[in-house]
């Protein structure tokens, strides 16, 4: 897709002006201005921002502002297409070259490139390095090179792409052209590796906080997972788009079918489906309104949907890195979003068994176990969850956030020393061969055939815990595992064994404070949807009318609705009720091109509701 050159283009070469007139944004976000200035001045930049932080503008604006064409290296065709479609919507001359194009299409784009019609060209790395492409680039003036998802050069990461290693030649072939390397991967080792492998020794580093303040983190004990999810969706997410992660394909299929039975638009996504079905489901998710995808972790990479309102984990992720990456897919648009999870002891057992059965070398297994332990510690937190997450990624001293479950409803803690000693000695007396259900039966003094068969009714720990309920005991065992006082025997059927760390507690030398599980909330909560707080009846009617207008315009062009305007832009319209083009232009997200193209439609929608 190529627009005809815009004569006004020559006029707006100032970055601040471009931000305003092309993208319709009022202010740069933190660091965007500094990066743009660095690149405008011809310097290189390493840009680390969390997902949704606004990396794209860092190269899009200098690419438009500087003479010549900005060359963007991107590893995923879907992402390239997405970015180009969004830019074209804003009236920018952008195109992409990748293996998914017909020969004729590709030639037309190359032609446009040579004729200097393009502000931005997205290319796959392997394509950029072909002699043909390098020859073309010698004939044009690259405005800059932006290497997106730059962590793909890291051989240690899971997204390694060998072609990325060769991108170091760009600096040699075009020493005067500024380069940007951009990523959302936080790890300091990867950072240095990127600069080294891309040969960018003089790059300035722009590293923003990894906090995603609009995401609300919550973790609850798994009781009846389906019902818990249903409550969450009904009470808080009516009609919102989201992702539900499950560990296995079977569970994904089951959960998707169940949600559909319950009346939700839910689609499965996992590696066992045909490529065609996966593509269709992903498209419906991206292009639709309020679609829920139930997926294994395979889903999400390369999806830029800004209005994912929630990410739900039905099983424990295997590391905080995975958790942060997956939850990071919510709320890219900056509006309130939820990261919601339920977990139980069985998750720990399953993951331990997967690590043990993986056949990986012992060192690798040790690392994996440590990652799982960090994840568990996060789940059993008594303090702010965001503090733990950010500290894990190297940001210490973050204040308590006020937007996670432990901040909003501080968990009760209690002195569990006595109870823990009972639990631990019960593990010991029964020979460290039993799982949590049996252990709880013994503690509660259950008189069953099995207990008699095993002779466990003669043990000194039989019945010493009959003052507490099954749920309470299970919570204790779960936390003892999370704290590393007990370990799950991966080979058996989840039998629990003592660790060295439990000795001081058993001997009474150390006290233990645990978290009290919350009773499941019975009261219905208010729905949390975009626009919460500003929606009285009239506003709601306007919101719906604007969404309908957006849906229609999107459908006419076969685009996802958010490409026309984001939710946040529609919400600003609801609040400001613009009646003129001028007033509409002042809304965040309304640039000149969209104003011309869609202004009348949206003004008409506003008029129809406001005056009726
Ligand atoms: P990233 O690539 O870092 O994940 P994007 O570049 O896709 O993030 O930006 C995330 C969202 O934030 C996009 O919807 C974008 O339009 C919006 N955005 C970026 N910069 C600004 C800004 N200065 N003002 C308003 N919205 C912005
Ligand atoms: Zn918090």
Mind explaining what this structure looks like?
By secondary structure, the chain is an alpha/beta fold. It folds into four domains: 15-207, P-loop containing nucleotide triphosphate hydrolases (Rossmann fold), CATH 3.40.50.300; 215-343 and 381-408, P-loop containing nucleotide triphosphate hydrolases (Rossmann fold), CATH 3.40.50; 414-502, Arc Repressor Mutant, subunit A, CATH 1.10.10.10; 537-610, HRDC domain (DNA polymerase, domain 1, Orthogonal Bundle). The chain contains 27 helices and 17 strands. The strands form four sheets. The chain has a seven-stranded parallel sheet, sandwiched between helices. Strands 8-13-12-9-11-10 form a six-stranded parallel sheet, sandwiched between helices. A two-stranded antiparallel sheet has the order 14-17. Helix 13 links the parallel strand 10 (266-269) and strand 11. Bound molecules: adenosine-5'-diphosphate and zinc ion. The site of zinc ion has 8 residues, from helix 17 and helix 18.
């Amino acid at each position: 897709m190529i627009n005809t050159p815009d004569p006004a283009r020559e006029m707006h070469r100032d970055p601040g002006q471009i931000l305003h007139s092309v993208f319709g944004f009022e202010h740069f976000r933190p660091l965007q201005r500094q990066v743009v200035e660095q690149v405008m001045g011809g310097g290189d930049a390493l840009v680390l921002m969390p997902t949704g932080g606004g990396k794209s503008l860092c190269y899009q604006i200098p690419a438009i502002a500087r003479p010549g064409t900005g060359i963007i290296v991107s590893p995923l065709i879907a992402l390239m297409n997405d970015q180009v479609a969004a830019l074209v919507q804003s009236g920018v001359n952008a195109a992409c070259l990748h293996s998914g194009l017909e020969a004729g299409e590709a030639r037309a784009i190359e032609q446009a490139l040579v004729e200097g019609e393009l502000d931005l060209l997205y290319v796959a790395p392997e394509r950029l390095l072909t002699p043909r492409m390098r020859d073309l680039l010698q004939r044009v003036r690259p405005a800059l090179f932006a290497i997106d998802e730059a962590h793909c050069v890291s051989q240690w990461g899971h997204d390694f792409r060998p072609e990325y290693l060769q991108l170091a030649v760009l600096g040699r072939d075009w020493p005067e052209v500024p380069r940007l390397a951009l990523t959302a991967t936080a790890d300091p080792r990867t950072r240095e590796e990127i600069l080294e492998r891309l040969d960018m020794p003089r790059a300035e580093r722009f590293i923003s906080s990894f906090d995603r303040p609009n995401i609300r983190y919550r973790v609850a004990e798994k009781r009846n997972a389906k019902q818990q999810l249903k409550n969450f969706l009904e009470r808080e997410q009516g009609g919102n788009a989201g992702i539900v992660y499950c560990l296995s394909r079977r569970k994904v299929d089951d959960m998707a079918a169940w949600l559909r039975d319950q009346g939700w638009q839910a689609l499965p996504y996992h590696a066992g489906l045909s490529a065609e079905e996966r593509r269709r489901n992903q498209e419906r998710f991206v292009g639709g309104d309020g679609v829920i995808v139930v997926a294994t972790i395979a889903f999400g990479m390369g999806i830029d949907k800004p209005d994912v309102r929630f990410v739900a984990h039905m099983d424990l992720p295997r590391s905080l890195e995975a958790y942060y990456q997956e939850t990071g897919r919510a709320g890219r648009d900056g509006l309130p979003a939820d990261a919601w999870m339920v977990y139980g002891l069985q998750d720990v057992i399953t993951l331990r068994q997967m690590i043990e059965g993986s056949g990986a070398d012992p060192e690798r297994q040790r690392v994996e176990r440590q990652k799982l332990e960090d994840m568990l510690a996060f789940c059993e937190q008594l303090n702010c969850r965001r503090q733990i997450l950010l500290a894990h990624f190297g940001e210490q001293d973050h204040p308590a956030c006020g937007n996670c479950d432990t901040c909003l409803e501080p968990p009760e803690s209690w002195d569990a020393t006595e109870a823990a000693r009972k639990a631990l000695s019960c593990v010991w007396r029964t020979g460290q061969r039993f799982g949590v259900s049996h252990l709880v039966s013994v503690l509660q003094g259950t008189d069953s055939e099995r207990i008699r068969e095993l002779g466990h009714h003669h043990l000194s720990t039989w019945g010493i815990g009959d003052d507490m309920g099954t749920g309470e005991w299970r919570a204790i065992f779960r936390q003892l595992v999370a704290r590393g006082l007990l370990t799950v025997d991966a080979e058996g059927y989840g039998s629990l064994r003592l660790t060295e760390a439990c000795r001081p507690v058993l001997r009474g030398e150390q006290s233990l404070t645990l978290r009290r599980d919350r009773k499941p909330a019975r009261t219905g909560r208010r729905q949390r949807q975009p626009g919460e707080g500003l929606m009285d009846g009239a506003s709601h009617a306007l919101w719906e009318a604007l969404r309908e207008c957006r849906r229609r315009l999107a459908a006419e062009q076969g685009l996802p609705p958010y490409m026309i305007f984001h939710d946040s832009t529609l919400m600003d319209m609801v609040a400001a009720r613009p009646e003129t083009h001028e007033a509409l232009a002042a809304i965040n997200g309304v640039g000149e091109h969209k104003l011309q193209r869609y202004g009348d439609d949206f003004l008409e929608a506003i008029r129809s509701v406001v005056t009726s």
